[in-house]
């Protein structure tokens, strides 16, 4: 288990929530994951830290990051909903108020579209942090794209190319991909290059 991640969890949730933190870290370490791993979780948390001044409730955004890919099965299309449900069940046991639990679950569900409403500062920060890999260097982006392909290794090449191209086009169709992080130009270049390769 990642001690670094556990330390992050304790600073956010307190040591009394160690069992939940351990469960979440174990989930991100599942063997079928290639991109949606503990490394992705750490990266999202690091980006949230960098963007925290833009959030209204940065600690709730951090909690949402912990849960946003807690349930991840590439064969299913309801991972975000199931992850939000996990948050709704687990967080009240930590003593989190109902309103805060609802905010975390809403933010987790937002990662389906990565399209926060105007004025949704917390949603903008989580969305940008989750998608930050899109604006990475071309080399890092290529490793990300290869890891995603590995996660969908059970999908035939033609079907994967069609599905992946649809996802990438949906991102390019967004009015903006990033709301507070300055990664728009790099992300659009990376996505366009991947579309060409497909």
Topology (SSEs and partners):
Layout (H helix, E strand, L loop, with lengths): L2 H11 L4 H11 L9 H14 L6 H11 L10 H12 L7 H13 L10 H11 L6 H14 L5 H17 L10 H14 L1
Helix pairs in contact: 1-2, 3-4, 3-7, 4-6, 4-7, 5-6, 9-10
Q: SSE string, helix = H, strand = E? A: HHHHHHHHHH
Number of helices: 10
Please tell me how large the radius of gyration is: 16 Å
Rounded mean pLDDT score: 96
Q: Structural class, from secondary structure content? A: mainly alpha
DSSP strand tally = 0
Helix content: 55-70%
Characterize the biggest β-sheet: none
- Pick out the low-confidence regions: none
Quick synopsis:
This protein is mainly α and 198 residues long. The protein has helices at 3-13, 18-28, 38-51, 58-68, 79-90, 98-110, 121-131, 138-151, 157-173, 184-197.
Q: What does this protein structure show overall?
A:
This protein is mainly α and 198 residues long. It contains ten helices and no strands. The chain has helices spanning 3-13, 18-28, 38-51, 58-68, 79-90, 98-110, 121-131, 138-151, 157-173, 184-197. Helix 3 packs across helix 7 (121-131) and helix 5 (79-90) packs antiparallel against helix 6. The model has no long low-confidence stretch (mean pLDDT 96).
Give the key terms.
single chain, 198 residues, mainly alpha, 10 helices, globular
């Amino acid at each position: 288990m990642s001690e670094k991640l556990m330390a992050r969890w304790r600073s956010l949730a307190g040591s009394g929530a160690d069992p939940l933190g351990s469960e979440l870290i174990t989930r991100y370490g599942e063997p079928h994951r290639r991109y949606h791993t503990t490394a992705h979780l750490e990266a999202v948390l690091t980006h949230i830290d960098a963007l925290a001044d833009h959030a209204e409730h940065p600690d709730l955004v951090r909690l949402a990051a912990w849960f946003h890919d807690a349930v991840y099965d590439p064969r299913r299309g309801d991972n975000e909903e199931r992850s939000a449900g996990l948050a709704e069940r687990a967080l009240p046991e930590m003593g989190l108020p109902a309103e805060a639990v609802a905010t975390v679950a809403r933010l987790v569900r937002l990662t389906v579209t990565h399209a926060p409403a105007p004025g949704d500062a917390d949603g903008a920060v989580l969305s940008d942090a989750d998608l930050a890999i899109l604006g990475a260097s071309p080399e890092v982006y290529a490793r990300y794209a290869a890891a995603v392909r590995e996660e969908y290794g059970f999908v035939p090449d033609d079907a994967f190319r069609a599905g992946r191209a649809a996802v990438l086009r949906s991102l390019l169709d967004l009015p903006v991909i990033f709301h507070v992080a300055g990664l728009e130009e790099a992300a659009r270049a990376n996505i366009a290059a991947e579309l060409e390769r497909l």
